[in-house]
Amino acid sequence: MKKVQIDNYIKIDKRTHNTHIKLLKALTNEFSNGTNFDNLNVQKLCKSAKISRATFYRHHQDMTDILTVEYLILIQNITEEINNLSSVSYSSISNIIVTNILKKPTLPELVEWAHCRDRIIPLINGIIQRVMISIENISNLHFISEFIGNDLYQFSLQIAKEKTLPNRQDTLNLFLKIIPNLID
After folding, report:
1. Residues 130, 94: contact at Cβ < 8 Å?
2. How far apart are CA 108 and CA 156, in angstroms?
3. What's domain 12-60's superfamily in CATH?
4. How many CB atoms are located within 10 Å of the residue 142 CB?
5. What crossing angle do the helices spanning 168-178 and 141-161 adopt, rounded to 10°?
6. Where on the tree of life does the source sit, at the highest rank (predicted)?
7. Fewer CB atoms inside 10 A, N or C side of the chain?
């Protein structure tokens, strides 16, 4: 299939990115330590991340923004990898998605913990819609992208919940069985 170009560029300067990494690490540590998200506050998170509250609020409205930004970064990485493909196929896109899911295995669990699935699913649906539009004109685009977006999120959450993370090939095989091929 033809090469596609998906516009999804996000520019994050180095200092902002470093702050984001600190906040994500602190949030992940709170999750790993069993902290109830509803009992976590910005002050405690900032102390753990060793940043000021002013810095936090310069970049985020609330703590779930950290996860939203992380998904935006992940989606940008996936988009760049798809754009770099010389030819797009279901297999090549599936490989990219699975590889990126396995790079950030706890991300969906963090989203569930932070109760912000409703902020993340539309981001996933949006990238699916842009990929589908760039490949061909598909009827029921909105319905299909929402369906696949929800399936993709649920797939990544199930992978994250596994006691032992499956290897890339096993994950890819599961993905190919579960997520419908609308490209080839």
Report:
1. no
2. 7
3. Homeodomain-like (1.10.10.60)
4. 9
5. 150
6. Bacteria
7. C
Which two three-digit tokens encode residue 29? Answer: 């540590």
Kindly list the averaged pLDDT for each block of 10 residues, start to end, along the chain of length 184: 54 79 96 96 96 94 95 91 87 94 95 97 90 76 89 94 90 91 73
Most distant CA pair in the chain, distance? 50
pLDDT value of residue 56: 95
Query: What was the pLDDT predicted at 87?
Result: 84
Spans of all domains in the chain = 12-60, 63-184
Structure tokens at 116: 């912000």
| Cα–Cα distance for residue pair 143/90, rounded to 1 Å | 19
CA distance 135 to 131: 6
Specify whether the CB–CB gap between 184 and 89 falls below 8 A.
Answer: yes
Single out the residue of 113, 72, 94 nearest to residue 152, CA to CA: 94
pLDDT at 1: 45
pTM given for the model: 0.89
Q: Class of the 63-184 domain?
A: mainly alpha
* CA distances, 7 to each of 64, 117, 119 (Å): 25, 24, 21
Query: How would you label 157-179 residue by residue, b for 16+ Cβ within 10 Å and e otherwise?
Result: bebbeeeeeeeeeebbeebeeeb
Contact 60, 66 (CB under 8 A): yes
